[in-house]
Amino acid sequence: MTDAGPSWTKERVELLKRLWGEGRSASQIAAEIGGVSRNAVIGKVHRLGLAGRVLRSNGAAPAPAQPRRAASEEARGPSPAPMPTVVAPAPAPLALVRPESIAPAEVALPLSERVTIMELREFMCRWPMGDPSSPDFRFCGARSITGLPYCMHHARIAYQPAAERKRSDRRVVGFR
DNA sequence: CCCTGATTCGC
DNA sequence: GCGAATCAGG
Question: For the region Disordered, what residue ranges are annotated (predicted)?
């Protein structure tokens, strides 16, 4: 029989809607539904009109994602007409970091990822943890933000606005 | 190098 | 309608 295999059946779509609504990532959903790639999930989400979810790990605004020219068009050469000035994206106000939000007690760190300097890689968070003179000294080692030496969590601590640091009048948070 | 979603377009 | 390839980014 020419079984086309599992497609977007009612059940699968319902599951997709539910998981997406719960804020699961496309790859997670894809793995859970099975038989589909994360691209397939994202594509379906868009066709269903479910996109535009504000939920984001960092709370950042969704990527503008400028339209990309077709491959055929690109092969043909530059566009004859100059691209009309794209509206400059409004400077997204960075989420203010309040002292409470970085209080050690409130923070859940991926402690399992601590690494030694030898294990440290370019893409790993370089936040020092522990006494540098101790053999127990480690670095955070979590996935770092590309272009930055720290993971999202430690980048927030490292790059606190001066005004915030002063206002909160806190010493070094401490290398946990 | 890991991940995220957004978009396009051949199928 | 589907989703791989690609893009843009954390």
Answer: 58-86
